[in-house]
User: Which sequence fits this backbone?
């Protein structure tokens, strides 16, 4: 049985990921309001489109936060392996939102080619630059936490931040070139904004597609390869009483792993003795491999 310290240790990463997801949600709300307000005040179509993209981030961050909270729920009768897949579902939703945001940005950019170009404003450029810098800082911090605690939803949210960096960068470059066009009296340069936004929308859609494929693979409970489980097999052989390791199958279940083990023991052992060996295998597996949440051990007679 795991000690209280082990249980607390398993909860800490999820608490940390929940806090990060909450911060991302409030930060995205702040940026959405900021870019939308400035965009409307100075009539910057690029900044308004970027605010819409940030609005998609708000829904993405909210989905990640909900996924984290659901994933923290303990196993129950209907979910004996826990609720870890909630994070994968949240990551899938973020991927869909990215793709939808990409189409929105693209359609907005195309429409701008058929409208009179708006007069650029330096405050729009300052807001876009602030969004680029702040989003990049949040991205780097969140992706580091997500990889350290192995949280798919948190990593997906971080990639969403990076997509917003690209969108804001496109807006900044477009607004900057438009400002140069205003100063040089070259109005055709005003259209650099929608052109850059169109290119970035393709990059955002591609990122969303990759995230959707990764989430789909995780939802199918992809089994680890024999090379990845070889260390587990070696550890099992070190358990006293194990005569042979017949198979080790580990599958992902959200942020953690569920392992099915088949071992052979002396056929003359009592049921109690075989049970103790199985307990030792499970305990050692969960102690050595932090991602392992459940171990199912089947005992075979060694013949």
Assistant:
């Amino acid at each position: 049985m795991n000690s209280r310290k082990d249980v607390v240790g398993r909860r800490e990463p999820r608490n940390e990921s929940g806090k990060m997801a909450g911060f991302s949600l409030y930060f995205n709300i702040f940026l959405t309001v900021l870019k939308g307000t400035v965009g409307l005040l100075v009539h910057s179509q690029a900044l308004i489109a970027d605010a819409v993209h940030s609005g998609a981030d708000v829904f993405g961050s909210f989905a990640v936060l909900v996924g984290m909270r659901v994933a923290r729920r303990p196993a129950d009768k209907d979910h004996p392996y826990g609720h870890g897949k909630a994070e994968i579902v949240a990551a899938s939703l973020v991927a869909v939102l990215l793709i939808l945001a990409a189409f929105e940005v693209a359609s907005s950019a195309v429409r701008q080619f058929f409208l009179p170009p708006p007069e650029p404003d330096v405050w729009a450029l300052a807001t876009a630059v602030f969004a680029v810098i702040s989003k990049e800082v949040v991205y780097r911090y969140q992706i580091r936490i997500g990889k350290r605690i192995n949280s798919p939803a948190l990593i997906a949210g971080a990639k969403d931040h990076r997509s917003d960096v690209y969108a804001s960068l496109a807006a900044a470059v477009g607004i900057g070139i438009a400002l140069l066009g205003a100063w040089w009296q070259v109005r055709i340069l005003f259209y650099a904004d929608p052109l850059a936004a169109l290119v970035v929308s393709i990059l955002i859609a591609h990122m969303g597609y990759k995230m959707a494929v990764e989430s789909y693979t995780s939802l199918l409970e992809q089994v680890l390869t024999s090379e990845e489980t070889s260390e587990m097999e070696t550890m099992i052989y070190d358990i006293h009483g194990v005569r042979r390791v017949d198979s080790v199958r580990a599958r992902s279940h959200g942020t953690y792993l569920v392992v099915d083990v088949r071992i052979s023991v002396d056929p003359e052992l009592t049921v109690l003795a075989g049970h103790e060996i199985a307990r030792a295998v499970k305990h050692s597996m969960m102690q050595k491999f932090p991602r392992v949440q459940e171990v199912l051990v089947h005992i075979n007679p060694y013949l």
The longest helix spans residues 4-42. The chain has a mean pLDDT of 80.
